[in-house]
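Weekly puzzle thread! Below is a chain. First person to post its structure in token form gets bragging rights.
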Amino acid sequence: MSKLGNYIQEAYDELLHKVSWPSWDELQQTTMIVLVALLMVTGIVWGMDFGIKAVLTFIYNLLAK
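Winning reply:
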């Protein structure tokens, strides 16, 4: 068997016998954690964007006068 064939066979065996897959409940729980974290980071970025826009608008208005 070639080195490539041996590598593919070993990878397949590892995937079937050595990898521990999460249960359905664990998968749902971690998915919810990721979604909540995503919403939090999105809110933080939105807040920073809103704040920077307000500051820059204030500065531009001062300079335009």
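Puzzle host: Confirmed. Bonus trivia for everyone else. The helical segments are 3-17, 24-64.
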